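Complex 252.
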Amino acid sequence: MKTCLWCLNTENKVTFLKKAHTIPKSLGGQNFNKNVCDECNEYFGNKQDKNYSIEEALKEAFNITRKRMLLSSKPKKQVGKFKSRFFDITEKKGKYKFEFKTSFRFNSEFQKSLCRSFKRGLYKLYFEELNRQKGIGFETEFDLIRKFARYDENDLPIFYFQRSVGIIMILDKEAETPTLFFERMKYLYSDEYFEEIEFLGHVFGFPKKEFNLENFENYHTKSTEIKKGFFVGITKIEKFTNIDITFNIMNK
Ligand SMILES: [Zn+2]
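Predicted structure with zinc ion bound:
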């Protein structure tokens, strides 16, 4: 019998009629996860008590990256303008700058909440793809992901790695139809407690089960070691500007 990856309810309690995109359709995602019930699927796409959904928080950030990637190989006319509900993107001599639109610029509560939704969305994308690709996720050790992404409880750290070189191995096809890769590049490090993924050229690291300080320090040391030469730093994501959404690294 089918069980929902998020609420753990089975087919006799919930329905599985709708197609659940693991990566939002609005981002070009084409994969589905069959183990997401309609209620949970809707949860991530609905605005809830905010004026944006979790999927929208993801889309807002990553669509800017997608455009930026396409711009490196296609003429501006073909790619079209940057469109965003929350950000203004300006270009000066090939360098891109993004900032919150005036109506959000001084609203730090809004920015914080949008960033939290983005983080929860990243976990959603990861977890549904993990389940789709590897068939795991129902085990209790993953409850901390369920709690944070689906039920808005606790807070989990997500780390962003800054590249030292502007060469990003991405094909146009990938910018159009983004895919989540596990263990794709040799600089991605994962262990029992932490996982690293690359999505649209961005590298993120985060816990996948309960961890202690020693687990974290061990992860941090080993992850930093194998990233030498490719990355210059690691930042705990607290706000959107921690992420190089417009890939300014490509200008270096
Ligand atoms: Zn469910």
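The longest helix spans residues 108-134.
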